[in-house]
Amino acid sequence: MMLRIGLIYVLCGVLLLAGCGGASSPPPPKASPPTTAEPTLAAPTQAPSTAVVSDSLQTAEQTASINSYRLRITTRSESARGVDHVEIEGAFVKVPPAEELRIRYQDSAQSMATMVVDGVRYLQAGDQWLQAPEVAFAFDDLTLITPDDVTGLLPLMTQMGVEEVNGVRAMHYRGGKEMIPVVGTPGERLDVSELAFAEMNLWVDQATNVITRMTLTASDAASGASDDVDLEVRFDYYDFNAAITITAPTAASVVAADAGTAATSTALPGDALSQLLGFRLMLPTGSTVESSLGTTMVTVITPFTVAEAQNMVEHTLPVNGYSLVTRAEPASGEVTYLFQQDSKVVSVTVSDDGRGAARIQFITGP
After folding, report:
1. Residue 154 class from Cβ within 10 Å (0-12 exposed, 13-18 middle, 19+ buried)?
2. Residue range 133-149, pLDDT digits in tens
């Protein structure tokens, strides 16, 4: 079995679906979030359903009749490596397009935030917002499986009865591991066929035929292997067509995408660092190159504090496709990270330059 244990493949320097935040992060979208208690289940009303027309089943993203909605995603995985817990809350408007996301993970010990307004994506880093129009967030990077993957599965599931979920009357469907599809890539795949237990539940809004809740529970605990994993994933869609207003950060708090290369006597390593990382890293105005060795090592001094630099590194690389392999503190005030993207390995060390600024060194190996 292959299950993603590091569920914190979430966004850039500060939340990806919202929120890696600092004190100045915008308040989350106003909403009454859905309750987390599971509804009382009625006895199954029928065997696996063949009468349901699943072709018309859609998600809130897909259906044209819903212009705005809110979303909550919770994931929890437990293994010998520990417990990963992620909560994502988002608000979305299709026309005009806008979104606001806030992510909290490790039982709210850390958070991050992002929003899109007028075609520009903003990512929060400390008390600043970074413009990142090229950055997008895919939920399947975090959960591997999403409601989009299961809209055609109702004929394979059992009707459990109508229940009140997320403020709507919804038909509850349940299915076992035999009907859960294999999703993901060879390196990051969700395949529950060999697990001791797996179950999927869907709740479909009767008024719109839209999924209002999806849950996936899987466990390999019965195998006794050292890499056993318990996994829980839950999507809640609610506040369909509610009045949602998403406002861009104030200009004073925004660092433009080009600001990192703008005001430095030594040009930032736009080419070298971009080639080293494979994407354009946004750094605040005032950042300078301390040293570089081709495209294999680049060291920069930034106005960030060490904590702000750590926050930026921990979230910017994952949102651009890197997996955090390890994190170590070899000395007081110094943190070294090892990230991997396919066959590329990048080491990032954050330390104090002795004058209250953060030194960030990037090294890539063959």
Report:
1. buried
2. 444 555 655 667 889 88
Round to whole Å and give the CA distance between 262 and 258. 6
What are the CA-CA distances from residue 186 to residues 4, 173, 208, 228, 260 (Å)?
12, 29, 35, 19, 36
pLDDT of res. 209: 95
pLDDT, averaged across the chain: 75
Tell me the C-alpha distance between 102 and 25, whole Å. 9
Q: Terminal CA-to-CA distance of the chain, rounded, Å?
A: 29
DSSP assignment of 171-202 equals EEEEEEGGGSPPEE-SSSEE--TTSSEEEEEE
Region of 118 on the Ramachandran plot (φ > 0 left; ψ -120 to 50 alpha; else beta):
left
* Residues paired with residue 163 on neighbouring β-strands, in sequence order: 170
Closest Cα to residue 140, out of 216, 64, 46?
Answer: 216
Euclidean distance between CA atoms 9 and 315, whole angstroms: 8
Report residue 158: phi and psi, to 5°.
-105, 130
The CA distance from 269 to 301, in Å, is 12
pLDDT for res 18: 26
Helix, strand and coil in the chain, % to nearest 5: 15, 40, 45
- Measured CA to CA, the distance from residue 185 to residue 213 in angstroms comes to 25
Tell me the whole-structure pTM to 2 decimals: 0.60
Please, what's the b/e burial string for 136-147 (b: 16 or more CB within 10 A of its CB; e: otherwise)? ebebebbbbbbb
With a cut of 70, which residues of the chain have pLDDT below it? 1-55, 81, 105-111, 125-128, 132-143, 184-189, 221-228, 252, 255-271, 293-294, 365-366
Q: In 3-state terms, what secondary structure has residue 313?
A: helix
The CA-atom distances, in angstroms, between 28 and each of 25, 115, 366 are 9, 11, 42
Element (H, E) at 101: strand 98-105
Contact 90, 70 (CB under 8 A): yes
- Give the three-class secondary structure for 287: coil
Closest by CA to 144, choosing from 75, 242, 48, 213, is 75
- Tokens representing 34 are 């859905």
